[in-house]
Each structure stands twice: as C-alpha cells, then as structure tokens.
Write a structure and sequence with these properties.
The protein is an alpha+beta fold and 896 residues long. The longest helix has 41 residues. The chain starts with 5 loop residues before the first helix and ends with a helix.
C-alpha cells in the first residue's frame, strides 16, 4: 500500500493513521540499527540481517504496536468527544440561564406532557406489564380460563398433564376474621396444597401451605400476608404457631408471606390463605351440603406452571383430553367442561389478576395512553415553536460562529444538546411531579375499591427508563427542526443585524406546528365533550327508584353458623331498631340491590303458559323485606307490597315489575296469579314500576321480588344487604348501622359500608373517568395551544414590524392593520380546526362503547368544541395583534 508522506502525516489534516505511524517508527529503528552494524564493518546485507535479528520478530512487534496505537487513538477520540459533550452541556446550561423565562416555560410545558405520560405508564406497568410481584419465573405460569371447576375435576387435571410441573387452584371467600377485640370481613383465599409451590413463593417467616395441609382431617392452618398481619394483629410480634379466629373457629398461623406477594387478585389484595379442606371446615352453613367431592360445585380457578421446554399449546391439548374423559365418565355434572377450558399465559398481573375484563382494561389503557401521547405531542409542538422564535434572536450569534469556522454539523450538535438538556431537566421535573401526584392520588378510588395504592402503582426502573427515552426522543423531535433551519442562515445576512434572514421559512414551520396543535387539541376537547355529555345523560337518567338518601352495608350471618330462625330474628331486630332511629325514614334487608349485580336467575313456570319449543323460562329475582320499596321509593302500580302478615308459614307471595306483568299477562290482571319456582309456589300480590337492575343503559327486564321473611327458611339467606333511607346525609347513617348491628349481634361483622351513590358509582365509572381525564388533559392542551398561538402570532408581528410601520405611515387604520394580522393567522387556525374535525370523526368510534345516551358523532359536541377552541385562539391571537397596531412608524422604519 502506498504510504503518505511524512509531511502530510505530521501536518495532520485528517485523522491519525496508526499503521503509517507504526511502520515509520519501526523503519526508523531498523535503519538506525543497520547504520550501527555498517559502522562496525558489516556489509549492507549482513548489517540488515543483524539489525533484524537484534530487533526481534518485526511482525509481532508491529501487531502489538498497532493494537496499542488503536487503543490510544480510541481513548483520545472518546476523551475528546466527552470533553466536547461536557462543553456543550455547560454552554447549554449557560444559554438557558440567560433566558430564564424561555427555560421555565419550556421546562414546565414539557414536564406536564412527560409527567402525564409517566403517570399513565406507571398505571399500565402495574396493571398490564409488570410481572407478578413475589412470584418465581412468572413467564412459565399459565391460567386455565373460561370456567371455574370442581375440586374433583382439579384433581383429574392435576394428575394428567405432562406439560406441567405443577397445577394449583384457588377461590377467594369472604370470611370473618377476629383479633379478639373486633371482627372484620377479610379476603380469605381457599387454596390447594400446591398453590405456593406452583407460584414459587417462600414464606417470610414460618412456612407456606403444603399438600399435607390440604388432606382430609388435617389441622386447620393459615398463612397471613405481611401487611395484614401488621395491621390487624399489631400486638402480636410473632403469630407463628398462634391461633386466630376465622368464622368463629380457631385456625393456626403457620407462616407469613413476603411483603411483595399479595396473591393473584391485585384489585382485591389477599390477606389470609387457608387450604380448601380448612375452608370447608369453617364455611358458612349454606355450604355444608356442597362438600369437596361433588363435581357439581364449580368454584375453583386453576393455574399451572409449564415444564422448562413445554408450550401452552401442549398444556391446552392435555387439558382438553382430560376434560373429555371427565365428560364421558360423568356426563351430568361435567357436561360442557371441554368447551369451557382454555389456557393463556399469566406472566403479567393484568392477564391473571384483574377480575375486570382484560380486553376492557387493555382498551381503556390504550385510550388513556393515546390521550397523554397527544398532550405530549402538543407540548412538543409548542416548545418547538418557542425554539423557532428563540432561534430568530440568535441568528447573529449563529452567523458569527459559522463565519469563524464552525461547521454546520457542529452547530447543529450544540443546538440539539441544548434541547436535550432542556428535555432531561423537564424529564426530571416530570418524574418528581409524577411521584407527588401518585402520593396525592394514592387513595383515590378508581372503581369498586380499586385505588392506585392497591394496584401498587409506582415509578420503577422500567418506567424511569421509558420516561428518559420519551424525554430524549422528544428533544430530537422538537429540536431537530429549529436546529437545522437555524444553521441554514445566510452568514453575510445574519451578520447584518437588521436583515430578516429566513423568516418566511421559519414562519411556515411554525404554522405547520400550530395546525398540528390546534387539530390535536380539538380531538381532546371533542373527547372531553363526548364523555361530559355522556356523564350528564347518565346522571339525569331515571333509574326508576331514588337512591340519593340511602346508606348501605353488608352482613353475613352464615359466618357465625346461625340457623334460619336466628338469621330471621337478626334481620327483624336490625330493621326494626334502625327504623326507629331519628333521621331514618325506613330500613330494609335484601338479598340483592339495584345496580349492584347481586340478583339471581331462576327457572319458573306459570299456569296456562307454555314457552316456545326448546326454550326455558328464566327470571331474575331478589328476596326483600317489607320496607324495601319504601327505602328505594319504588312506586306501586297495582296491588300491594309485602307487609307484616307475609311471614314464615304464611302462603308465599311475590311482587313483580311491570315488564314481567306485560310480557306474560299483557292486559290481564296478574294479581292472584301463581309462579312456580320448582317446589316453591308464590302468589302475585302486587306490581311495581320497572327499575334498572344492572346497568343504567339496560332495557327493561322481567323481575320478581319475593318475601325475604318467607324465603329465608328455604334459601338459607346468610349474606344480605342492609339499606336505610335517611332524611339527611346518608353517610351519617353508616355508623348507626354498625352500632345497631353490634347491639343486635356483635359477632356478625359489618362490611362494604357506603352510600348508594358510592356503591353504584361503577355504573358510570367509564363516563366519569373519561370526562375527568379528557377534561383535565383537554384543558391542559387548550392552555398550551393558546400559549403556542400567542407565541406564533407575536413572532409574526415582530417579523413584520417594518411592514406594519409602512402601513401605518401610509395611513392605514387600526382596524385594517388588525384585520391583516388576524386574517393571516386565523386562516391557519381554521385549517387546524378542519383537520381536527376530520381526525375526530375517524377516532371517536374507538370510544363509542364507553358512551351513554349519545352517539359518537354528537352534533352538540362537534359544534361546541370548535367554537370554544376558536374563541380561545382568537383571544390568544388578538393580544399580539393589538400590539401591532401600536407600532411607531418612525421606530419601525429605523429598525431596518
């Protein structure tokens, strides 16, 4: 290879050539040794051979020197690069410190956008991404979904699946836990002996449950969660070996679970784990006839652990084969098992542990993520506009730097470093704001008792890393355009302080960003409007009853193993004493409440009525006490409701709703007609108005109310709802319910205390969440967009100072100057509105299923939102436009 001359290499007009340097150095040393040998009397050839012999293996030395040279060159380049980065960062910080107003505005704008994304990322991470906390290798776990199963079916599945290293099952049960001073209902989980082994969970203290604990006749044992043990048994430093009371029965604590393990239900953190056999020994009396050996009681949820090289499909095939064998052996109680069994990975909490429908959670998370991403885009567009405007003030500085030799790439790197520093500062502020927000919102009830605290939402390393990536990505996104456009400055023109430079090009970039901001803001405003209108419709919907002054609580007399007579006496005493208290109009007990998803469906028959071939009559029913209809102010349309004569031993009676009456008796009078529920015959004594039983948007359905006093003996009602109507604030009556219950039956715990509005809040949760989230972020986007419009118009006015001065000098009126500025900018805003409307029409279909009572293209919303945004934009543009009308022509002409 041809070598460069020494002059070229020493002048170093390009990067160092290590190979040339090493070869030159080796030649020099060989030549010097060869000269010494010639001087000592050796011939030329002999001298060369002797010099090589004395030097050693030239090729080996050359390779070693090559490596050393390359390493030194790399170290020098890295050190130079790091020094350059350090200098760029220091210079960027100085530049930001010289413009504190710009820095604060940009950092806060970005921090709001990034912080919103961090908060949502934390939620998504906790619900859908984060592996099951405290579980070993969660990626090998699979859930057996589709149906609950019986204990015998679990045993068959467990013993016949070669793809699994273990199979376990569990079922959460409400159980009364007592610490000797008070009793409360806690989520107790009945598990098979393999539960902890399959999950790979070890005890923090003591031991976990094993297969021996789940054998018939084994002593009752329990494992407590660490948080529950600390909260409920604060006086017992070490519970291992001590007995606690579950449903009034002693159970020995054998272990405490680790702090980070809360079971498989993140929306209902598990407190106590007991074996399935232990639970049957202390279960309420209504479960006494079920037992663990019957295949008809499908109550367990299953999950398993795959062997190292097994697949989900192999496990599914084995499950299907086992289910088919069970159906063949027991076609009655196992019918449909094979069709119901399905398997899926449960490596994340969202796939296994949320009792809410997983698809709904994913869709809601996607919508909220898209919303905060739009906010971030708006924030980035706004900061990009600020950077473009700021760049105009630095055109002389950039021109000088390029005139004295700074390359375009070097200047771009410096400008991008400034935006990166800005973004990283904003990211740090965003993380701090997110942490503060999580702390303030930790106990915010999202739905049905689920809060940010119970979901375990926190900003971990994964969320922090994604936040940093978002911040850096945003810096490149919004910093690239100003950086590249700024370095296109004409150097000669930039050095002339009055030259406008490339103002028109930058103005076009700003206009495009403004169009994007307006369009994205309109999307959020339309979304907020749709959910707000939907919430208003839901709140104004007449459910057919009045729950505004109703307080609720749940009790379960079955937990104390009471018989039907004792239960009936407790219910009677409770309602009588509550009804006599001042401030309470009526008190009732019911097996289910409206909008609480607690009613049951029953098969029935009627006199002189035959259903269509192949169909079976079913109706939903609830057992209620006499004052139920007074508590909820349900109007009686015909006949009567229950009274003091409808007691046990009297002929069974029922009240039906108007849909039931119309469907089966049309225009005939249903009073006196009979309904047959198996062996139980009830006579209709009244018809009441239709109400909404499950959802506010449901169509009227047939419904039957039966007398609780008459049904308690047959149904063994143990868990019931207590409802009282108050004259004032219903929250004040919750304490009354607890006190009266303590006087009537102190051993029966009271739980789920709430007002009716609080309990039924889940029915409008989607509308309330959408209205609040989109309303918050829509308002934030509106403010950011208004700031952006103000900045763009102000920048345009500054660029056109000379033009405005000439217009005014020539006699232009204030009105005409104002019109020139506004028309020019409002055209851009109107284009953004049209783009936003088009995008909104295409996107709102994704949220249509969450809306109530309105269409996804609601005309009122699609008319109001653009008007609101247009008014805000006009005000934001008017302020700098008015400033243009006050330009002094003399000063304006001198400025150029």
């Amino acid at each position: 290879m041809m070598k460069r001359s020494a002059l070229h290499r020493y002048l170093r007009f390009w990067r160092a050539d290590v190979e040339d340097d090493v070869d030159e150095e080796l030649r020099f040393h060989l030549e010097m040794r060869e000269r010494d040998c010639v001087a000592s009397g050796l011939g030329s050839n002999e001298a060369h051979a002797e010099a090589v012999r004395r030097f050693g293996n030239v090729d080996s030395v050359r390779e070693i020197c090559y490596d050393i040279g390359h390493q030194r060159e790399r170290s020098t380049r890295i050190a130079g690069f790091m020094q350059g980065v350090r200098n760029d960062v220091v210079f960027a910080l100085r530049q930001l410190a010289r413009s504190p107003g710009f820095a604060i505005a940009a950092v806060l704008t970005l921090a709001l956008g990034i912080g919103a994304n961090s908060l949502v990322l934390g939620l998504v991470n906790a619900v859908l991404v984060r592996p099951l906390p405290g579980v070993t290798e969660p990626g090998r776990l699979i859930a057996v979904t589709g149906t609950a199963i019986s204990y015998p079916s679990f045993a068959d599945f467990r013993d016949g699946n070669p793809a699994l290293s273990g199979l376990a099952a569990y079922s959460e049960r409400s159980t009364a836990v007592s610490n000797g001073q008070h009793t409360e209902i806690a989520p107790v989980v009945a598990v098979t002996g393999s539960y902890f082994r399959v999950l790979g969970v070890k005890a923090l203290r003591g031991r976990v449950l094993t297969d021996r604990d789940d054998e018939p006749g084994a002593p009752p044992t329990a494992v407590l969660s660490a948080s529950f043990a600390r909260r409920f048994f604060p006086d017992n430093a070490d519970l291992i070996g001590h007995a606690i009371s579950l449903n009034g029965s002693p159970v020995t604590v054998v272990g405490i679970s680790p702090d980070d393990f809360h079971g498989l239900q993140i929306d209902s953190p598990e407190s106590v784990w007991i074996s399935a056999h232990t639970w049957m020994s202390l279960a309420p009396s209504s479960y006494a006839d079920k037992g663990l050996q019957g295949r008809s009681w499908w109550w367990l949820s299953m999950f398993g652990r795959l062997k190292p090289r097994a697949t989900v499909e192999q496990a599914r095939t084995a499950f299907m084969m086992s289910a088919s064998r069970q159906e063949a052996a027991d076609p009655g109680d196992s019918r449909g098992l094979a069709k119901a069994v399905a398997t899926s990975p449960i490596s994340t909490v969202g796939q296994a542990a949320l009792s809410v429908d997983h698809a709904t959670v994913v869709r809601a998370a996607a919508i909220v993520t898209a919303v905060v991403a739009i906010v971030l885009l708006i924030a980035c567009s706004n900061v990009c506009n600020l950077l473009l405007a700021r760049a105009m003030g630095r055109k002389r500085e950039i021109g000088i730097r390029m005139a004295i030799g700074a390359g375009r790439a070097r200047v771009v790197r410096q400008l991008l470093t400034e935006t990166a520093v800005l973004a990283l500062i904003a990211g740090a502020v965003a993380l701090a704001v997110t942490q503060l927000g999580l702390r303030l919102l930790s106990h915010l009830d999202l739905t049905d008792g689920i809060s940010i605290a119970t979901l375990g939402v926190h900003i971990d390393g994964r969320v922090t890393a994604v936040t940093v990536i978002i911040a850096l990505g945003a810096s490149l996104a919004f910093g690239a355009v100003p950086a590249f456009q700024t370095t296109q400055t004409n150097v000669t023109g930039a050095l002339k302080s009055g030259t406008p430079g490339t103002g028109s090009t930058r103005s076009n970039a700003q206009r495009l960003l403004l169009v994007a901001q307006v369009a994205l803001s309109l999307i959020l405003l339309i979304g907020a409007g749709l959910f707000t209108r939907s919430l208003q419709r839901a709140l104004s919907t007449d459910p057919g009853f009045d729950g505004s002054h109703v307080a609720l609580a749940s009790i379960n007399v079955g937990l104390i193993r009471s018989d039907s007579a004792r239960a009936g006496q407790i219910y009677s005493d409770l309602t009588t004493r509550l009804g006599s208290l001042p401030g309470i109009r009526a008190a009732a007990v019911a097996s289910a409440l409206p909008l609480d998803d607690g009613s049951d469906s029953y098969g029935f028959a009627l006199d002189n009525y035959s259903p269509p071939a192949g169909t079976r009559l079913n109706v939903e029913a609830s057992d209620v006490s006499a004052q139920y209809f007074s508590v909820f102010s349900i109007p009686v349309l015909r006949g009567r409701v229950f009274n003091s004569r409808d007691v046990a031993g009297a002929p069974h009676v029922a009240v039906i709703n108007q849909t039931m009456a119309h469907r089966y008796w049309q225009n005939a009078d249903p009073i006196g007609r009979r309904i047959f529920f198996g062996s139980d015959t009830v006579t209709i004594v009244g018809v009441v108005r239709d109400i909404r039983y499950h959802e506010l948007h449901e169509l009227p359905i047939p419904f039957v109310y039966r007398s609780l006093d008459q049904q308690i003996a047959e149904s063994g009602l143990s868990r019931v709802e207590v409802a009282v109507r108050t004259t004032g604030n219903p929250a004040a009556a919750i304490g009354m319910i607890r006190r009266v219950m303590h006087d009537v039956a102190p051993e029966v715990p009271v739980y789920r205390e709430a007002t009716f509005d609080e309990r039924s809040g889940h029915t409008i949760f989607a509308q309330r969440l959408g209205a609040s989230v989109l309303g918050l972020f829509g308002t934030l986007a509106l403010v950011i967009t208004a700031i952006g419009i103000y900045g763009v118009v102000g920048y345009g006015v500054a660029q056109r100072t000379r033009e405005m001065g000439i217009r005014i000098a020539l006699g232009a009126r204030t009105r005409s100057v104002l019109a020139v500025v506004l028309i020019d900018n409002m055209t851009t805003i109107l284009f953004g509105l049209l783009l936003g409307l088009a995008l909104s029409v295409a996107l709102v279909r994704t949220v249509s299923s969450f809306l109530f009572g309105i269409s996804a293209t609601d005309a009122v919303t699609f008319l109001t939102a653009p008007i609101v945004l247009l008014v805000v934009a006009a005000v934001a543009a008017l302020i700098p436009a008015l400033r243009a009308t006050r330009v002094d022509p003399v000063i304006a002409l001198r400025s150029e």
